[in-house]
Amino acid sequence: MAIATVNPATGETLKTFDALNEGEIEDRLVRAEQTWQEYRTTGFDRRANLLRKAAELLEADADDIARTMTTEMGKPLAQARAEAAKCVKTMRWYADHAEALLADEHPRAADIKDSGAARAYVRYRPLGPVLAVMPWNFPLWQVIRFAAPALMAGNVGLLKHSSNVPQTALYIEDLFRRAGFPDGAFQTLLIGSGSVEMILRDPRVAAATLTGSEPAGRSVASIAGDEIKKTVLELGGSDPYLVLPSADLEKAVSTSVTARVQNNGQSCIAAKRFIVHTDVYDEFASRFAEKMAALEVGDPMADETQVGPLSSEQGRSDLEELVDDATMHGATVLCGGGRPKGMDRGWFYEPTVLADVTKEMKIYYEEAFGPVATLFRAAGLDEAIEIANDTSFGLSSNAWTEDVAEQERLVRDLRAGGVFFNGMTASHPGMPFGGTKRSGYGRELGDHGIREFCNITTVWYGAKG
């Protein structure tokens, strides 16, 4: 894939970039290693001041970088602005809390004594340069949620961003430089996917994090495994959205629309499979389809637009293939199901709801990355859980019920990295985020996220003889 800004609302190529050659990559690896050797010795106060300055600059740049993101990948401008604000919040959160999150930990006194130590503690130390392979769908947020904790822990970052968001990628490097971070603390590498293996195998690179597709995650994990390097993977999701009889149906319906079409439906944590108890199925299905059909599809720069284009022509083709296969095998289209009429430019697709989905259809198992929802009828809680877990993914889940016993059952039995009741899945800097099964492993955000790329070091002092 060429490294280029291609406006998905028009299909127009706006700017292209040359990939780094091997010599240029080597220069950046040298710089990363040299910078880390010094940066790792800085104190938390210094790191926090730098990160707060970056947050201040991003806050001032929010409208400009939002327009860049919308131009490059097509999300509605209001959502792009919200993404920038979330990044500012997260940087400030880690600047405020990192020192406490990484404070020395002290084992129980009895265990210290039993080990023969006069004293002992656990210290979190940085690993080194970390390679981040990031996707286009949240081009600022996905990077910042890695970079903020990694930099506060004393690591340095090397970013291989998606090839269709190069201007956003370069902005992030410039942001940290303007904030006063050392020149090699965070570097954007404009490279193709073919260069990732060489960089990951380089002994100066300590670890890697990837957010993206399952095949990409499998590739990075296998290379890192061969090199015995730590990885964190956040991959695809086909998140269930359960609606049970005790739910507030009005809120469940209105939230379901946002949960499905956020970011034009191109989100790993977007609700994709709507599993509804038979007692409320007909009413939910009717109201859900009506609201989906009423969404405003159009220019992502326009204030009234609720759903913009898909990020690429291939992305739309993949979605069309899933919908066409489903209808061919008997799925019922409650709304949408094709390209919007009169929109010949850009890669738009109608908000779509499919019912009567069966296991013979590809969409039953594959992630639909766009504004397409699948609807399932469940006879009871047991069947709802069975459908929800009948996927290779396990990123997050949503459930609407006021019944405490049902809530406890769902926490116990839903196989996912998150269970969100009476609301939609969302990430917050203070809470761990990640999945299970083929949605990946490891966690980002919270105290768990900042410790992923730390050397958890036991420090032990023997008693004086």
From TrEMBL:
CDD domains xrefs: ALDH_SSADH1_GabD1
InterPro entries linked to this entry: Ald_DH/histidinol_DH (IPR016161), Ald_DH_C (IPR016163), Ald_DH_CS_CYS (IPR016160), Ald_DH_N (IPR016162), Aldehyde_DH_dom (IPR015590), ALDH_GabD1-like (IPR044148), GABD/Sad-like (IPR047110)
Keywords annotated in UniProt: NADP, Oxidoreductase
Residues in Aldehyde dehydrogenase domain copies: 3-459
PROSITE patterns from the UniProt entry: ALDEHYDE_DEHYDR_CYS
One Pfam family recorded for the sequence: Aldedh
Origin superkingdom: Bacteria
Presence of keyword NADP: yes
Recorded family membership: Belongs to the aldehyde dehydrogenase family.
Protein name per UniProt: NADP-dependent succinic semialdehyde dehydrogenase
Organism encoding this protein: Streptomyces ochraceiscleroticus
